[in-house]
Amino acid sequence: DEEGWVYVSSRSIIIRLRDNDGDHKADVEQVLITHDTEANYPHNGLSALLLTHDGRLLFGQGENFGEPYEVSGNDGTYQAGGGEGGNVFICDRDGGNVQRVATGFWNPFGLTQSSRKTANATDRSLLY
Question: What is the DSSP string of 74-110?
Answer without folding.
Answer: TTS-EEEESSS-EEEEEEETTS-S-EEEEEEES-EEE
